[in-house]
Amino acid sequence: MADKHDREEAKRQKSIDSELKKSKSLSNDGTKSHGEILKEQITEGLETYDKKSSSLLLSSLTAGLEIGFSYLLICAVYAYFSKFLGEDVSYKLTALVYPVGFIMVILGQSILFTEQTSLLTLPVLNKKRSVSSLLKIWGLVIAGNIIGGMLIASLLLWIGPRLGIFDMIVVEKIALHATDFSSLVIFSSAMLAGWLMGLLSWLLSSSRDTLSRIVIIFIITSMMAFTGLHHSIVGNVEVFAGLVSSPNITFGRYLNFQVFALFGNAVGGAVFVALLKYRAFVYNIDVK
Prior knowledge:
Blueprint: H1 2-22, H2 34-49, H3 53-66, H4 68-85, H5 87-93, H6 99-107, H7 113-125, H8 131-162, H9 168-179, H10 183-206, H11 210-227, H12 232-245, H13 251-282
Helix pairs in contact: 2-7, 2-10, 3-8, 4-5, 4-6, 6-11, 7-8, 7-10, 7-13, 8-12, 9-12, 10-11, 10-13, 12-13
């Protein structure tokens, strides 16, 4: 019985791989089909799996550092405009600068956990990589992103006040804005953010030029910022900066935020993008 099931699964997988190989653009203007985007996503994911651990760690560390430029601009905009427009309006304005770090990371091809969540899950769904290898690579990327975020947060805490860009009150308010929610709310919010980031990766595969990619990144990430959805890597910089500088941000509060934000981001990207997009393609294939 088990052998029969295994044979049927192998047959089905062969049909899926064959259909993916045949996938191509459907229109004269070069618009990519669902299958073509899925094939590119799986291929890109497999390329990441094949990189050395040291390369992955360094690239993810770089992403953690670069995403800190979003935090620098968030603090600068909030500190400047809150004097005239009030805190609520000023925080909404940070959505205009929030995408800058993401543009640097994604176009610079550093490895960001939330952008890679869906991408790295697809080869597992396609049975080209194991769950254990997925968890291992997630662990490396998360570690690099978090360490990089801590390093850039420490630097910005030192340079920001000395350049008169922001003060520690601003740092505390931004950290409290990210953590002042229940664990369930942080998880649910992060799940939506992970969903958007997974969708961002999918949309970038369908775009053909740099300008359109920048527009897509801006739309998705500014939406996250304006609505206050929790992003574990930017949030790591925000909350770690608060942990270092404010007695109101305890280590327990930082850890609670980080765990639920990471878990939510992972679920959003892996389930609502990778799994659903993959299954939408697979369910349309007849086993031959």
